[in-house]
Amino acid sequence: MAKKLLIANRGEIACRIISSCKKLGLQTVAVYSEADAHAMHVELADEAVLVGPPPARESYLRVDAILDAARRTGADLVHPGYGFLAENADFAQAVMDAGLGWVGPSPASIIDMGDKERAREIARLAGVPILPGSQRFALGQTEAVMDAAQQVGYPLLVKAAAGGGGIGMRRVDEATQLLSVVEATQSMAGKAFGDSSVYLERYVAAARHIEVQVFGFGDGQGVHLYDRDCSVQRRFQKIIEEAPAPGVPEAVRAQLYGAALALVAQQRYSGAGTVEFIYDSERQQAYFLEMNTRIQVEHPTTEMVTGVDLVAWQILQALGELAPVSQDAIALNGHAVECRLYAERPEKNFLPSPGLIETLAWPMKQEGLRVDTGVRAGDRVTPYYDPLVAKLIAHGIDRSEAIARLRLALEGLTVEGLSTNAEFLHRVLSDADFSAGGVTTAYVGHFLEVQKQRSRKAG
C-alpha cells in the first residue's frame, strides 16, 4: 500500500485531491511556486516543496523539479490534476520511469488522444461518428489549406492539432478570412503547445457541447457515469455545466454512451476520462470532438448525481485496489449544476481581474450544495495562473431544484476586493432560455447582446 501521494498541481484541484487522499488514509505532498507560498493547498497538504518562481514554465511545468520533490519526500504516487502536466505523456512516462505510481491513463493513450487529428482517426476506426474535417497542416501549406477548406465547407473551425480545452480554436466564415486565421492560430499553437500544426473542422451552428464521463479498467472494459452538458461557454471555455444534459432524446443519449465506451475499449483505456461530443440539436446527431485523458473541472456534477468519488477511484486504480465496477452498479440520482466563479470582468469580454481577495464569505450550508475552492480571504488571485476562485455545485431531485439552489448559493456569496462573474452567473441561471434547457454554445454571445440592448433601452 502506498503511503504518500504528490500532487503536481495547485489551487482548487490540488485541494480536491487532498480531500480524497485524507479519506483514503494517504499522506500528501504539495508543490508550489513562490507566488503560492501561502496558498491553501500548501497549508492542507502534509508536506510542501517549493519548485520555482511564479511563471508556470519555471515551476509547475518543471518535470525535473516535481520528480525531485517526489524523491525528497518519499512519495509513492503522482496525481497531475487537470491542466499543467496532466495530459503530458512525457511527464507520465518520466513518473513511471522513476518508479512512481502514475494516477492516470497510459502515456500511449495520452499521446493518441492528445493529437486531435489522430484522435479523430481512432474514433472513426472505433465506429464513433466524427465531423467532416481535414488532415493537419504545418506552416506554409497555403494551397493545401485552401483546397481542404473548400471540401470541409464554410463556416468552419481552425483548430490547433495539439490543443484542447477550447484553446487554439477559431471560427472562419468565408475564404477571405482563412489564411490570416490559420497563420494566427499556428503562431499561437506553436507558443502554447510546441506544435504549430492545425486542422480544419466543420462548424455546427446549432451546437451543444455534451460529454460522457468514462472510467476504463485498462483491459478494454469500462463504465460510463452518464453525461454532462457544457454548452454555456465564453471564448470556447466552459463556465456552467450540468449533469445529465437536458432535452437529449434517449436514443441519442444511448448512442453517446455506446460511442464513448467503444473508444474506451479500442484504447484499452485506464482511469478517468471524458469523451466530448458536438451535438447538432437541429439534426439530432452527435459527433466526436475530443477525449480528455484526465479528471475534468466539471467532475463534481457527475459525483453529485452518482455518489462516486472519481478522484478516489483514480487513486485506488493506481494502487491496484479498485474493486471491479459494473455498469448496473452506477445509478443516476437527480440533477446537478455547476458554475465556475472566476476573477474576471464579463462586461470587458471576460478579461481576467487578478487582485487581493479582501473578503470571502461562502453561502450558508444548505442541502445539496458543494463548494470546491483553493482560496481564502487574504489570498491573492495572481496573473500567473487561471483566475478560478471556486466552483459552486448544487444538486436537486430535478433540474429546477438544482438551478434554484445554485441561484440561492450565489445570492449568499460575498467576494470583495476584486471583480468576479458572480452576478453574470446568477443572471444566466435566472434566464428563461437557460431554464428551458438545451441552449447551444452560441448562447453566451446572444445573452450578452440581449443584455446590452436592454441596457440601451433602459438608458
UniProtKB/TrEMBL annotation:
<dbReference type="InterPro" id="IPR011054">
    <property type="entry name" value="Rudment_hybrid_motif"/>
</dbReference>
<feature type="domain" description="Biotin carboxylation">
    <location>
        <begin position="1"/>
        <end position="449"/>
    </location>
</feature>
<dbReference type="InterPro" id="IPR005479">
    <property type="entry name" value="CPAse_ATP-bd"/>
</dbReference>
<dbReference type="GO" id="GO:0005524">
    <property type="term" value="F:ATP binding"/>
</dbReference>
<dbReference type="InterPro" id="IPR050856">
    <property type="entry name" value="Biotin_carboxylase_complex"/>
</dbReference>
<dbReference type="GO" id="GO:0046872">
    <property type="term" value="F:metal ion binding"/>
</dbReference>
<keyword id="KW-0092">Biotin</keyword>
<dbReference type="InterPro" id="IPR005482">
    <property type="entry name" value="Biotin_COase_C"/>
</dbReference>
<keyword id="KW-0436">Ligase</keyword>
<dbReference type="Pfam" id="PF02785">
    <property type="entry name" value="Biotin_carb_C"/>
</dbReference>
<keyword id="KW-0547">Nucleotide-binding</keyword>
<dbReference type="Pfam" id="PF02786">
    <property type="entry name" value="CPSase_L_D2"/>
</dbReference>
<dbReference type="InterPro" id="IPR011761">
    <property type="entry name" value="ATP-grasp"/>
</dbReference>
<dbReference type="InterPro" id="IPR016185">
    <property type="entry name" value="PreATP-grasp_dom_sf"/>
</dbReference>
<keyword id="KW-0067">ATP-binding</keyword>
<feature type="domain" description="ATP-grasp">
    <location>
        <begin position="120"/>
        <end position="319"/>
    </location>
</feature>
<dbReference type="Pfam" id="PF00289">
    <property type="entry name" value="Biotin_carb_N"/>
</dbReference>
<dbReference type="InterPro" id="IPR005481">
    <property type="entry name" value="BC-like_N"/>
</dbReference>
<dbReference type="GO" id="GO:0016874">
    <property type="term" value="F:ligase activity"/>
</dbReference>
<dbReference type="InterPro" id="IPR011764">
    <property type="entry name" value="Biotin_carboxylation_dom"/>
</dbReference>
<protein>
    <submittedName>
        <fullName>Acetyl-CoA carboxylase biotin carboxylase subunit</fullName>
    </submittedName>
</protein>
